[in-house]
Design goal:
The structure holds two protein chains of two kinds.
Chain A: H1 3-11, H2 18-29, H3 36-47, H4 54-66, H5 75-91, H6 93-100, H7 104-109, H8 112-125, E1 130-131, E2 138-139, H9 175-181, H10 186-194, E3 199-208, H11 210-219, E4 228-234, E5 237-243, H12 253-266, E6 269-275, E7 282-284, E8 293-295, E9 307-311, H13 318-322, H14 338-348, E10 352-356, H15 367-375, E11 378-380, H16 383-395
Chain B: H1 20-32, E1 36-40, H2 46-57, E2 61-65, H3 72-76, E3 77-79, H4 81-90, E4 104-106, H5 108-114, E5 120-124, H6 131-143, E6 145-148, E7 153-156, E8 162-167, H7 175-179, E9 182-186, H8 191-201, H9 207-221, H10 232-244, H11 250-254, H12 261-264, H13 268-282
Parallel strand pairs in B: 1-8, 1-9, 2-5, 5-8
Antiparallel strand pairs in B: 3-4, 6-7
Helix pairs in contact in B: 8-9
The chains are: A alpha/beta, B alpha/beta.
């Protein structure tokens, strides 16, 4: 029952599983559904697992049972479609290249994010829905992009395929590539950063040390002597410096925010400071870089075992880095050479890295990036780069 | 396991206002014997729902408050080695030292499994724990049994408990986890719903006070730059404070003055923001 409904949900990008569909059947057999309203609630609670899809579900439900027309793709749907497209791309890069009109080499270089953006741009170019036309994206047409089309080698966008030619299963780029190079999610970031933790005993002695207890009891000729230890807790100190100024960091706000949120929820002893482009005599602990300044010179007195992580694109005008009065802010007084400051920090904290959200290919086009690279070990802010950075931070101890 | 008669329908409890939709969902989850995952803003009554179900179905409620460092075993059982050691040393207890089983204490999940009647098991704020905990927990709840390694015994659920899981949606839960739960997202109540909720807590509240409080409350939720918006709990406490203040008149609120803002805004930065904006809108 309702198999069509189930497939429409899938087509529109709601991840419904066959198991949950069977469960729905079970619920109906159990006599829980007496009306359409019941069905709406029951089906949603069983099939849809995230409130992100509730709106899409509503639309499909209305379309399916009350014959309301399905709206043109909305923002939610676009994301859903984009995700479906991404999966398709992973399975069929050639078809995708052909469909979007870019050559394969270029497509391979695109990150999933760029690809989705490109695709969304195409979608926006068309102002109305096309079902059966030959323009860009729609359903059932002869266009290369869109679902259930009949263009040979075309790709489908989250739809059931009617023509076999649309599914070329060339498994060149599998899922692994995507997860390694793609945008970082919080859980991925967590996996990478978790290894940074360093457990050390703290707090009251409330854990029984069995080995020592046995040993001491033996020494006591059987008189029980219970030995308590302190609990292990993460004592790692982390300083996170974030470049949050200027347009050059704008494209990376998302990824830096993810890092920021993860770090602030995970590390107990975490200090976060903000700077613009590079570090002069002061950094700030408020993102506006106004209210709470902090003298960089004080850092020297801190625990040298602190893990020191700088996030920034390291891309600026060279004089900002090497001129004694390089700061681009008028109110900044005698600042000193920023590069010297960076060297001082790198010298103070043995475990320091610079995470750069720009891709590694772009680094050599920026002179300042090259210079800073010689002071701080620099890593890409991707899952791969993050793992390497963590490795570096832990191995140097 | 569950038969028809100990599977009564759920319709709401004295202190909890329930919409039809949610009642249906609780019903479905009980019938399908699946855990119900509740997500939603803090203060939308996720935890209260479990209490309400327990009250209305007359079932005992067992609450497992998940902590970030929690291991699955803590939720299942504990082997009290220390007491056993103590008993073996001094031998003045009535427990049998050679029998390890008498030193096994059931954790919350264990208690729910071994209870003599069907219970409600509330696993509160599961998102605090790591993904391994979540997945392992679901395995246990799926199979309705777990092993006690020390005595090589399997604990099977006598009655399948009604399982309610809440999450504050800070982290995404894993797909396999979601696949095994029914899902519901509790939206923040709209003013009409909120009125009913307040009525449940203050049955004899003055109509004028009620409407002015609720409209002020929703206006305050709209303020800019607030990190933690006031939720139902804050509203209830606020009304309680207003009622107990003998000098308070509903007119004060109408004039735009809001006393006891500190009850509604719990973070000092939020409170400052709110005070500023309230003063500004008055002037």
């Amino acid at each position: 029952m309702f198999v069509d409904f189930f497939y429409t949900l899938r087509e529109r990008g709601i991840p419904v599983t066959p198991t949950s569909f069977l469960r729905l059947q079970k619920a109906m057999n159990a006599g829980l559904v007496h009306s359409l309203d019941d069905f709406y609630t029951v089906a949603r609670t069983i099939l849809v697992k995230s409130e992100r899809f509730f709106d899409t579900y509503d639309q499909i439900f209305a379309h399916h049972f009350e014959n309301a027309s399905l709206e043109d793709p909305t923002a939610v749907e676009l994301t859903a479609i984009a995700r479906a497209m991404l999966e398709e791309w992973l399975q069929n890069p050639e078809g995708m290249a052909e469909a979007l009109g870019i050559d394969q080499e270029k497509l391979k270089k695109m990150t999933p994010e760029e690809l989705i953006q490109y695709f969304l741009d195409r979608l926006k170019e068309q102002t109305e829905a096309h079902h059966g036309g030959n323009k860009w994206i729609g359903t059932g047409g002869t266009s290369p992009t869109g679902h259930s089309g009949i263009h040979p080698g075309g790709m489908r966008v989250g739809g059931a395929s009617r023509n076999h030619s649309a599914i070329k299963v060339a498994l060149e780029r599998r899922f692994r590539d995507y997860s390694q190079e793609g945008p970082l999610t919080q859980s991925q970031m967590g996996e990478a950063l978790k290894r940074l933790r360093r457990m050390a005993p703290t707090g009251p002695k409330d854990i029984v040390n069995i080995d020592k207890t046995i040993y001491e009891t033996m020494r006591n000729a059987g008189e029980i002597d219970i030995i308590f230890d302190r609990r292990l807790a993460d004592r790692l100190k982390v300083v996170l410096m974030i470049d949050n100024g200027g347009w050059s960091m704008d494209p990376y706000i998302d990824v830096v925010q993810t890092l920021f949120h993860y770090a602030s929820s995970q590390f107990k002893d975490l200090k976060i400071y903000f700077f613009h482009n590079t570090i002069y005599s002061r950094v700030w602990s408020d993102p506006q870089r106004y209210y709470k300044p902090q003298d960089v010179d004080d850092f020297i007195r801190w625990d040298p075992e602190t893990r020191f992580i700088i996030v920034g694109d390291a891309n600026m005008a060279p004089y900002e880095l090497v001129h004694p009065n390089g700061s681009i802010y008028i109110d900044a007084k005698q600042t000193g050479v920023s590069l010297e400051r960076l060297k001082l920090l790198a010298g103070t904290f043995r475990h320091s890295v610079w995470l750069n959200p720009m891709s590694i290919q772009e680094w050599r086009y920026s002179r300042t990036t090259e210079i800073i690279r010689q002071v701080f070990p620099m890593f890409e802010l991707t899952l791969d780069g993050l793992e390497k950075a963590v490795q570096f931070l832990t191995s140097a101890s | 396991m569950s038969s028809e008669k100990n599977n009564p329908r759920f319709s709401g409890a004295s202190k909890y206002v329930l919409d039809d939709e949610l009642a249906k969902i609780v019903d479905v989850s009980m019938t399908l014997e699946m855990p119900l995952l509740l997500k939603g803003e803090p203060g939308t009554g996720k935890t209260m729902l479990a209490h309400a179900i327990a009250e209305s179905l007359q079932m005992p409620l067992i609450v497992l408050n998940v902590k970030s460092s929690m291991k699955l075993i803590e939720a299942l059982y504990q082997y009290d080695t220390l007491t056993r050691l103590n008993d073996s040393r001094f031998g003045d207890s009535r427990r049998d030292v050679s029998n390890i089983e008498s030193y096994i204490k059931m954790g919350k999940v264990g208690q729910a499994f071994t209870a003599d009647k069907r219970t409600i098991l509330l696993i509160d704020e599961i998102d605090k724990a790591d993904t391994d905990f979540q997945d392992d927990m679901l395995d246990v709840l799926d199979q309705m049994q777990f092993d006690i390694i020390e005595i090589d015994k399997t604990v099977k659920a006598k009655h399948r408990p009604v399982i309610i899981i809440t999450s504050n949606a800070k982290k995404d839960l894993s797909d396999p986890f979601l696949g095994r739960c029914n899902f519901h997202h509790i939206a923040f109540p709209d003013p009409d719903m909120m009125r009913m909720i307040v009525e449940v807590h203050f049955p004899k509240l003055d109509e004028e006070l009620m409407s002015v409080c609720i409209s002020t409350f929703y206006r305050l939720r709209e303020l800019r730059g607030i990190e933690k918006k006031p939720a139902t709990r804050e509203l209830i406490n606020w009304i309680r404070a207003l009622k107990s203040d003998p000098d308070f008149r509903p007119k004060t609120l109408l004039q735009g003055r809001v006393p006891y803002l500190g009850i509604l805004f719990k973070k000092s930065a939020d409170l400052q923001q709110a005070v500023q904006q309230v003063v500004k809108s008055r002037g």
